[in-house]
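Example (one chain per record):
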Amino acid sequence: MQKHYKAVFLIALLSASTTVFPDALPQNISNQLPAGFTTLIFKSADINSDKLNDYIVVAHRENEKELSESEQAESSPRRPLLIFTQKTDATFTLAARNDAVVYAVDEGGQCDPFLDIGDGLAVKSPFFTIENGVACGSHWTDYITFKYSPKLHNWVFHKRIFESWVMNNSTKPDADALVLEKRSVSTGDKAKPVLLEKYQPD
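Predicted structure:
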């Protein structure tokens, strides 16, 4: 568990060195959000190597929890992941969207898998990672990373790391509270790249 937290800290440290933290989205981007959605979290960085700051935005419905608990709801509202790239005139265009990689409000069981364990989004150009996970009841993390492809002018699936932990039965006083139960790693196939828009977690 300690190694896991060190890895998360390193990701955060790297992203902090390359990511801009503006107070609000540019109005040009806000105007392009899907109807009925508002900003949940966003970060700005040059994520397509053109020396202009772009935006990665996760949008949501403000009443998503109530909607997910409604008797009429067939499923919880999704949280669209949107990439806006900056043009030379300082406006932005929607370059990519995926509605599956950011987990919904109740996909963690007792917890919110996107908001409850940390930042939810780490950026280190040309990579960015969606960080889903829970630490109440069950304990798991599911990190999905994408990389910008200059050849395709798009973002492709790079790597997914899933880890889960269970309570440690050890009676040693210095034992970790949790022990790793499962770890799986899947890596994108360079010969058959999967675009961000097409990627679906299993």
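Caption: DSSP finds three helices and nine strands in the chain.
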